[in-house]
Amino acid sequence: xxxxxxxxxxxxxxxxxxxxxxxxxxxxxxxxxxxxxxxxxxxxxxxxxxxxxxxxxxxxxxxxxxxxxxxxxxxxxxxxxxxxxxxxxxxxxxxxxxxxxxxxxxxxxxxxxxxxxxxxxxxxxxxxxxxxxxxxxxxxxxxxxxxxxxxxxxxxxxxxxxxxxxxxxxxxxxxxxxxxxxxxxxxxxxxxxxxxx
Length: 197
Known about the structure:
- This protein is α+β, with helices and mostly antiparallel strands.
- It is built from 5 helices and 9 strands.
- It has helices spanning about 15-25, 45-50, 95-100, 150-165, 175-180; strands spanning about 1-10, 30-40, 55-60, 65-70, 80-90, 105-120, 125-130, 135-145, 170.
- Strands 1-5-4-3-2-6-7-8 form an 8-stranded antiparallel β-barrel.
C-alpha cells in the first residue's frame, strides 16, 4: 500500500473546536489508543541516507496490546509524506526485537504518542499528542501500490482539507515525528536517525 499524509501542529486549546468540526463534517471517531514506536537502522544500509525506515510498533487500546513491524520506503513528496508501506502483525514483540538485533539492526529512537482517530470514507484524521512535541493533526489517505499518477491530486485534496481548518491556525509540518523527536531541521541529518514516521 501507499500512504499519503500531511500533518500540522496546532494550539491544543482549539481541540474541542476541531473535534466538533470533524463531527459536523460527518467524521466518526474510530478509536483512541497509544503508540510506542521503536525505529531501527540497517547494519549496512544507512536509512537516514536512503530515506527508509523500519519500525516496531506497540499499540495499546484499553487493555488490548498489539504489535506490528513496518517498512517505509523513501518519501516521494516534497510537501508531506508519500511512501510505500509494508506492514505485518507481530505475535511476540521481544522475539522480533531479538531477531532484528541478531541480524545487526540497531535501535536508534523511540516516538510515543496518544492518538484519537476519525474516519470519513477514505480519509483518516488523527489528533495526536506527542511527549515533548505538543499537539498535531495528521490527515491521510491510503492508496493501493498499483495506483499511479494520483499522488499530487491526493496531496492537493489533503491541503484543501487542512485549509478548511483555519480556525485552529494549522502550521504544515514537513518533518516526520521521528525527525522532530531527533531534533532534525530542514536540510540537516541527525546521526543514526531514519527520517520516517
